[in-house]
UniProtKB/TrEMBL annotation:
InterPro entries membership: eIF3f, EIF3F/CSN6-like_C, JAMM/MPN+_dom, MPN
Name of the protein in question: Deubiquitinating enzyme eIF3f
The entry's keywords: Cytoplasm, Initiation factor, Protein biosynthesis
Membrane-spanning parts: none
Organism for this UniProt entry: Polypterus senegalus (Senegal bichir)
CDD domains hit by this protein: MPN_eIF3f (cd08064)
GO cellular component, one term: eukaryotic translation initiation factor 3 complex, eIF3m
Name of the coding gene: Eif3f_0
Record function comment: Deubiquitinates activated NOTCH1, promoting its nuclear import, thereby acting as a positive regulator of Notch signaling.
Domain MPN, chain residue ranges per copy: 8-138
Length: 235
């Protein structure tokens, strides 16, 4: 639950890329990290893309290939100049001590960077996705610590991404976990069916409103008739 801060909107391509980098991780690696790209406005951070960054970590230290991260971002700007660094991600369920060190680097690359954690190992039985923003805490002039505060996350997609999301959703109940792309005609038919369902809902709502207005009209008419009869009796 968000305490304060922007709403983080995540596109499905970001989650797919994170899962893919986790599945392709080096042997012996416990988690993968990477840079989050997207756009920022006053109230939201929209994460539209990402790329993984090589790193090594042990119990005592962590090493991140910052040069690789910079080069990848420079190349990405040539393709999508509107997307900027909005934060970084890490697979796993918890925030570690190394996360604080990595977050310090991204704090120099972006203002108030978002830290996204994705539980690709399904430690809780599902792929929990959480977003955080850091805040300094401590006494001024003394040792300062960092506290990660949770943010509200939402899942959004473009119309073109909707096709892939629907396809993945259909494979959930298929034992082989495979499914082919639909033809253009089938997509038109599916879209027409959804429109028909929405129109049915709108018509049903309209009829319910008309019935309510009729009841209200008859009730007001009855009250007016009773009031008129009382006045006639008094005469």
């Amino acid at each position: 639950m968000s305490v304060y801060g922007p709403i983080v909107k995540i596109h499905p391509v970001v989650l797919a890329s994170i899962v893919d980098s986790y599945e392709r991780r080096n042997e012996g690696a416990c988690r993968v990290i990477g840079t989050l790209l997207g756009t920022i406005d006053k109230h939201t951070v929209e994460v539209t893309n990402c790329f993984s960054v090589p790193h090594n970590e042990s119990e005592d230290e962590v090493a991140v290939d910052m040069e690789f991260a910079k080069n990848m971002y420079e190349l990405h700007k040539k393709v999508s100049p509107s997307e900027v660094i909005v934060g970084w991600y890490a697979t796993g369920y918890d925030i570690t001590e190394h996360s604080v060190l990595i977050h310090e680097y991204y704090s120099r690359e972006a203002q108030n960077p978002v830290h996204l954690t994705v539980d690709t190992a399904l430690q809780s039985g599902r792929m929990n996705i959480r977003a955080y923003v850091s805040a300094q805490m401590g006494v001024p002039g003394k040792t300062v610590g960092v506290m990660f505060t949770p943010l509200t996350t939402k899942y959004v997609y473009y119309d073109t991404e909707r096709i892939g999301v629907d396809l993945l959703h259909r494979t959930r109940n298929i034992p082989s976990r495979t499914n082919g792309l639909t033809t253009d005609l089938e997509q038109v038919g599916s879209a027409a069916s959804r429109i028909q369902e929405m129109l049915t809902t709108v018509l049903s709502y309209t009829e319910d409103v008309l019935d309510l207005l009729m009841v209200t009209y008859l009730s007001n008419l009855t009250q007016a008739q009773i009031a008129l009869n009382e006045k006639l009796v008094c005469l």
